[in-house]
Amino acid sequence: MAEGLPPFDPQWLAAEQMMGGRVVIEADSIEKTREKFVGIFAGLAPFIPPPTDAVRSEDVQLTPTQRVRIYTPAGETKPLPVGLYIHSGGWFTGSVEGEDHLCRTIAEKSRVILFSPDYRLAPENPYPAGLNDVCAAYEFMNAKAAEYGGDQKRKLVMGGSAGGNLAACVALKYSSNEELKPTGLVSACMASCDPLALPSDYKSRYTPERYSDAPMIGNSIMQQAREWLKVPQPEDPLYSPLLHPDIKLLPKTYIAACTKDPTHQESVFFSEECQKQGVDTDLVEWVGWPHFFWVIPVLPKSAEFLDVWCKKLKAMAGS
């Protein structure tokens, strides 16, 4: 056990045994690293239930190179909240398809129409290409909400891992815009600040070495992902949202942090900063669980995690 951290949840240790041992992705070439991530998601495929008619989906091309998948809960006649769901993948991998089952679950349980966009990936497309794409998808969602049965005034933005970072950045970018500001933010296992740009009061508490036994992603791949993103300045507030001057303008915010995750402290720091600046913020720490564990659908804890996510969305949307 890493010093000073709670032990793994027994349910997670049992899941590791079922999956044949601990998987940790560390820094490698971009090709090999992507292969490892694709392998994880491919290994989950047999455990993912097939889509049902509880949620219908439609792919829409925003541009010749970017599409968004729209998930609409069935059986609703009144306008529903709309939400931008941004997939994970360290800014360099991931896809709409990889988190399709999560979007279907969230849309069905929260009664939110989800817009899940593709976005350009690093290193082939350096910062801010991916951010620009998800912002374009957010503006599309705002403009077309009514057309898809949504309520433009109830806009949510959400994601996990790199998607959690991008969700926070989208929320911050538009929080000072009366028409476009969101009504809620959900960010899980987020990267909130480049370690090189951490303010001194956070840097003095930053201890990445304590997460040396973390499954799924290691410290080295986190650093490599930042290098692939090629952000010119580590203190850029739309890459390191912890530093954004408009944090105080954020809407209701839910931060999910996992204690066996290298992003744990960054998630907690962002929550602390939101609270300091008067944002209505709720932090839930998932003790003994690793990065993005809820992508594994057979874990009972995954269902619990997504239930909390959906309850937070409903509260934010007033539904």
From TrEMBL:
The answer on whether this UniProt entry bears the keyword Secreted reads: no
Determine if Hydrolase is one of this entry's keywords.
yes
A Pfam family this protein belongs to?
A: Abhydrolase_3
Q: One GO molecular function term?
A: hydrolase activity
SUPFAM superfamilies found in the cross-reference section: alpha/beta-Hydrolases
Sequence ranges assigned to domain Alpha/beta hydrolase fold-3 in this UniProt record: 84-294
Gene3D superfamilies, sorted: alpha/beta hydrolase (3.40.50.1820)
Q: Which UniProt keywords apply?
A: Hydrolase
Q: Which domain of life is it from?
A: Eukaryota
- PANTHER family, alphabetically? AB HYDROLASE SUPERFAMILY PROTEIN C4A8.06C (PTHR48081)
Spell out the protein name for this chain: Alpha/beta hydrolase fold-3 domain-containing protein
Which species does this protein come from? Exophiala bonariae
